[in-house]
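Please annotate the following for my students:
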Amino acid sequence: MAKGLKVLNLYAGIGGNRKLWEDVEVTAVELNPKIAAIYQDFFPNDKVIVGDAHQYLLEHFKEFEFVWSSPPCQSHSDVSYITTYSKNGEFLHRPKYPDMKLYEEILLLKHYSKGKWLVENVIGFYEPLIKPYEMAKHYFWSNFYIKDIGNICREHNRNIDILTKRKGFDISKYLGIDKLKTLRNCVEPEVGLHILNESKIDLQPELFRNI
């Protein structure tokens, strides 16, 4: 039996982006062992690695036909930035450096990867250092053209019951995790499927996303 597209899924969470993928051979990397165990429950045929996704990408990106990376977004988020300040302009908590692993990965993939790749992150509080494509209230960087999927209702600020239905993951039985945060961190499954399908369209290089 022929194997599917060989995919590297970094910072995998519980697999929101991966949920609707078919005919794929996935290696998923997730740092939190409890979250990684939930991912493995939902996708038992995937290879799941508990470890540093940033380092794994550097060492293994050549082995995959498609790379999806969703690096931590909190230090880039406009919401996190806004909530740093009180109403009178005082700091509510200590500011942090934005995590530059985001741009390290974009530059690595852009200049060294021979396969298709995509990096996803939230809309940030600053002008992006490398121009992204904005879709579904997120930033995307890629080396292939992505047709806009249109407005997606994320239900991001809703309760666990609504997010469970929206994302399609029932994690009620799992202990020791922040269930609301875990569901909010999920990429919308239809967005994940749309992007994977777009990566399979063989366009001319001049039509690829120019970043």
Residues 101-112 form the longest helix (12 residues).
